[in-house]
Amino acid sequence: MSELINKVTQLLNDKTIDVFIGYEKGSADRIRAAFARTAEQAAKLVYTASCTQNLAGYLMKHEVKKLGKPGLLANVAALRSIMQLASEFQVKDGEVYVLFANADGSFTEFTSFASIEAYLGTTDVGIKSDEQEMIARLEAMSVQERWLFWNKEFDKCIKCYACRAACPMCYCHRCTTDVNQPQWIPVASHERGNLDYHLMRAMHLAGRCVNCGECANACPMDIPLNLLTYQLIDPIKNTFGATAGMKADAVYALSTYKPDDKENFII
Amino acid sequence: MQEFEPKIVAFVCNWCTYAGADLTGTSRIKYSANVKIIRFPCTGRIDFMILMKAFENGADGIIVSGCHPNDCHYSTGNFHARRRWIVFRNLLNFTGIETERIQFSWVSAAEGFKWADVVNNTVKKIKEMGPNENYKKIAVSTLFNEEEIINE
Amino acid sequence: MEKELKILKYNDLPKLIERFRTQGYPVLAPVRKNKVVEIETVESLDAVALDALLSTQSAKKAAFPKVEKVIDYTLGKNAVQQVPVNPETHPETILFGVRPCDASGFKSLDAIFGDTPRDEFYLKKKEKTTIVSFSCPVADSYCFCTSVGGGPGNTAGSDIQFTAISKEELLVEILTEKGAKLASHFTDLLSDTKGDIDKNKFLAEVKVVFDMNAVVGKTTASFNNTALWLEQSLRCIGCGACAFVCPTCACFDFQDEQNTKKGVRLRLWDSCGFSLFTLHTSGHNPREVQSQRWRQRIMHKFAYMPEQLHVVGCEGCGRCSRACPVDMNIKEHLTSIGEIVTV
Fold first, then answer.
1. Which of residues 141 through 160 in chain A touch C, CB cutoff 8 A?
2. How many separate domains does chain B show?
3. C130 in contact with A at a CB cutoff of 8 Å?
4. Whole-model pTM above 0.95?
5. How many Å apart are CA B121 and CA B127, to the nearest integer?
6. What does the pLDDT look like over A119-139, one tens digit per residue?
7. What angle do CA A24, A29, A33 make, to 5 degrees?
8. Cβ of B150 under 8 Å from any chain C Cβ?
């Protein structure tokens, strides 16, 4: 912990960064995001095994941007978020100072996108085994069973948009759900509105999702939303050879093509 | 009981399939009347949300058709569309929506016979599958079924 | 009316729901669904999660659902024919097994929707809802009802309140005419109380953490304290989870859904946390940044409502803090407002 605090204090003192986005102790036994701008605030930073939130989403937040050059305490998902954001021209090389938390509790500095890319190339970025099992369980069901499963899950949705707000890739200033001319997605949180919204969101994140799981974590109604985008990761990787958030200059899988893309359903 | 007549919506590109369907007509080839054709500039413009809207408004089946690969009027529209459909079909299947209800095809301006076949086969398939009950149940809830929504 | 005290055997509790159902009353109660507890219609006591600390969402949906139809219309050649939904047709409903903070939350909603112009959709539904609350034997660190004038055994807003006084017996407080009418269906199951019962002995302990009057005064005076609101809301991501689980949040939106022939007008929940909430057609947004929206949320509950409606818009249930994905803890934020020395 003191290593982290010393490092951040030094970064703030020598003006390498203006704000450091890290974690602090929250209410009850929770951990929450902290924005250290002074040595005093830096002293409150913590890093424990419960620090799992992907903080990269804050890089896109208006008020955080106004605080100046950011430093970020990153986990693997945050590194991938930065790569994906870079590939979508949302952050530039050198704009973010990245401190990566290693599994052994030590910290590694990433000063360039190239170093992040090199690290990610040697890291397992797949989804967790329990999530894999859940997807396999759903895929083993009949189509009708899956329909009923998701119907029941979406029924709980109250359209608070916590999933969208928590997602580091949902940074659009005007989301498709906010568009009302034409109204693609019903605003109402009825069955149709919920299904439309979640299908739309999954489709807009296909090939961009960095499987951080923030959407499902954020959901107050405990809907396993992450599965929707997670299950698209393998097909996109196998068919198009693309994985999101690995390279800063990657081309988005769905905005490019190969003349010989394989499919088996077009007659 | 009257035989089930499915409602099929066909989203086709202006340059190939629409002309192909025109050829079917001018060649006096008879085909199923269940289909309503909607013309788009290109398959690349046929957003997945348009397909969802078709289901919501009561379509039992959908045909999406455009130029063969390498024949796109805008060079690459159909290539982009193809990628999107590959992903979209995965998502539909995972959320329990029958992918068989959407027929994708390439029909050129010269393939009048093929268009008739695509429509006839799709109508036959959807007749076997029956009405799109799942989607209808949720789709019309606000407009036609009051109880569904009051007290949610 | 004078409140009436009775005793009910715990074993007779299932009979209550059975009788309500045979009388034809829909019964809404907390139901456990994996990690969340929802308020839903139930058929028997088995389904009711009486042991749940709190439902994830508040009970406000009984009178103010997330989606509610208000007008049916058909589009004619020259005119639109409207058929407003008649709120009188709402069935007499029983809200069972909710907590005192849910019941008292309706007091704030009554104040908002009862203010002119009166909102008949809410008021009729509320009038037709009989609230049977269960006092709280346990509380957690997010609860702060006692700091905002409530409490684990607060009877405000409830028609009947149950308190477990032993493993076998429940204390029944019949508090209103509506409650008495409902209790008439199970008079035979009730017995008289023997001696004085100190209900407080059976309630959870919830410490008072701030002085409400100080918080109201300091909130009102802090409107221009930009730094305060920015500091509190930096981690806020601008979703609507807090507003949608809140028992007193009452903002709503209207949406028309129609095809070429007919349509419906729907009333939906809305949240001041969304940037879209105040966005003008011109593109100008008077609450441009999240800190202004957070200020609005706190000011509305602790400055505007006390001033205009003479109620505080918070029940201290802590639902917003539990639901918040980024741990915006309202109890903590209010405490820090209460501790401001000079404003």
1. 156, 158-160
2. 1
3. no
4. no
5. 10
6. 999 988 889 999 999 999 999
7. 25
8. yes
